[in-house]
Design brief:
Helix content is about 30%, strand content about 15%. By secondary structure, it is an alpha/beta fold. Strands 1-2-3-4-5-6-7-8 form an eight-stranded parallel β-barrel, surrounded by five helices. Helix 3 packs parallel to helix 4. Pfam families: Spherulin4.
């Protein structure tokens, strides 16, 4: 798959020279202390002088967004990650374009004020051409809010489409989630032709229900389709796809150490 240079409006992902990990959102640190601690250990083991950690970003979702007030446990967990040089993204739920612009900007400001996030993960992002102008408006506002903050490289914006959107969305953010769903669908999926005009650092795949025996196959699919960031887990949804209580992302995969061994230094794309 040909990978061409990005436009000046977007920035390549951390560790873009190799496949890396994006964490779509663990449970609250009180419920998942091992998971949050493991992110630090993972990056300390695999990062080094002149080499970026293969953890590209992790999403902080306090309570369907930043919550009503600062959460001390989330402050501590996200602060530890940021102090270790890891990128933390605030979770903004676009509800497929239903949420008002003002509500989203207000949530983003709370994330910046309380948690000093390094960017935003725009979950349930619309995919259609008709909604593109409103997403451009939102991402421009978020870019402006991130400008001049501590966020490295001006911050990071990830659009959580979950499927391939209209091609114009590629110019509005740093990375697009072009697959989010079960292994049973992923193993037969195909990349949209327009993605071939962009480097792998522009795309992310989130896949649940991946059997341990198919982990290598899943990694091959990601590389073949040109995804630079992945999250694979053997965990499955326990409720509806839009119900956070049933999220397959809230805990570590059962084969976490095996993913680490395959994603760490020495694994080429």
């Amino acid at each position: 798959m040909p990978h061409l240079s990005t436009s000046p409006a977007v920035r390549p992902a951390i560790g873009a020279d190799r496949l890396g990990i994006g964490v779509p959102g663990y449970a609250h640190p009180l419920l998942a202390p091992v998971e949050w601690a493991e992110l630090l250990r993972f990056s300390r083991v695999h990062a080094g002088p002149g080499r970026a950690a293969p953890l590209h970003w992790t999403v902080l979702n306090v309570a369907d967004g930043p919550g009503a007030r600062p959460d001390p446990h989330c402050l501590d967990a996200s602060g530890r990650l940021r102090n270790a040089g890891l990128r933390v993204l605030g979770h903004l739920d676009l509800t497929y374009g239903v949420r008002a612009f003002g509500e989203l900007v207000a949530d983003a400001q709370r994330f910046l004020d309380w948690y000093r996030v390094d960017g935003f993960y725009l979950d349930r992002c619309p995919t259609g051409r008709d909604e593109l102008s409103e997403i451009r408006r939102l991402t421009a506002a978020l870019r402006s809010m991130l400008a001049g903050t501590h966020a490295p490289d001006g911050g990071r914006l990830v659009l959580g489409h979950g499927t391939h959107p209209y091609a114009g969305y590629a110019e509005t953010a740093d990375q697009l989630v072009t697959f989010s769903g079960p292994w049973t669908d992923y193993r037969w999926s195909q990349a949209a032709p327009w993605t071939a005009a962009h480097p792998a650092s522009r795309f992310c795949h989130l896949v649940h229900g991946v059997p341990r025996t198919h982990l290598d196959e899943a990694l091959r699919i990601a590389r073949w389709q040109g995804a630079g960031t992945i999250w694979f887990t053997d965990r499955t949804e326990r409720a509806g796809a839009d119900d956070p209580a049933g999220s397959p992302w809230e805990a570590l995969p059962g084969y976490w150490d095996e993913i680490v061994s395959r994603i760490g230094p020495g694994v080429s794309e």
